[in-house]
């Protein structure tokens, strides 16, 4: 049975999909009516539920990929293909403390919050108030807001936390906040960066030479989907070719800059 507080996906027949958190007693409001909490908690995944106006939806278990792609956005989000690699390279684990510098719409913050669990913490820094509000609304929609602190602050001003396990930086000029990154990380901590152009990657690599952030690794993740027809198996006609370059490094304070 489905429990209150669970994240579910409501699949509209021949329409959009919607991520919702199951309420305790209230109804879920859809464009074509309301679905009661009782309907959902008395159902299983794969069942159909109906609004009071007859709208039909299939109950599907929400995945992290669904959450990331389902955020309301006013910025370019980080794609699931990149997020999976980021989570592994930054060693994000239950109980980890992670800084997300340049939170934007909050897609990566949601992934971090999902993996750090109730015992961990995510600290989002974003200089724009409207993006802070958007990030907060997205996290509340997914019932993850209690794991995340959002600060309206320029990352160049530094972080309030120290000895965190990992930092991820998604701003136009990441080389301007390397001192803040080093001050925030614990020895051996990991840092990742997202950069859209090779020019920015080169500038960041040059700047890293003057820091205690070493062992830089640069990567680009490409993903191609295939049409699921067994008689005519072939790639999809379109693909997202380039989303960004990823750069990862470790903080070793004993390294002489």
Low-confidence runs: none
Q: Assign an overall shape.
A: globular
Number of strands: 13
Measure the end-to-end span.
Answer: 57 Å
CATH top-level class of the largest domain: Alpha Beta
CATH superfamily of the largest domain: Vaccinia Virus protein VP39
Query: Biggest sheet, open or closed, and with what strands and sense?
Result: 7 strands, mixed
Topology readout:
Layout: E1 7-12, E2 17-21, E3 27-30, E4 33-36, H1 37-41, E5 48-50, E6 56-61, H2 64-69, H3 80-89, E7 97-101, H4 107-116, E8 121-126, H5 129-141, E9 148-152, E10 164-169, H6 178-184, E11 185-195, H7 198-208, E12 213-219, E13 245-251
Parallel strand pairs: 7-8, 7-10, 8-9, 10-11
Antiparallel strand pairs: 1-2, 1-6, 3-4, 5-6, 11-13, 12-13
List keywords for this structure.
257 residues; alpha/beta; Vcp-like ATPase, Chain A, domain 2; 4-stranded antiparallel sheet
Task: Please give a structural write-up.
By secondary structure, this protein is of the alpha/beta class. It folds into two domains: 7-62, Vcp-like ATPase, Chain A, domain 2 (Roll), CATH 3.10.330; 65-251, Rossmann fold. Helix content is 24%, strand content 29%. It is built from seven helices and 13 strands. The chain has helices at residues 37-41, 64-69, 80-89, 107-116, 129-141, 178-184, 198-208, and strands at residues 7-12, 17-21, 27-30, 33-36, 48-50, 56-61, 97-101, 121-126, 148-152, 164-169, 185-195, 213-219, 245-251. The termini are far apart. The model has no long low-confidence stretch (mean pLDDT 92).
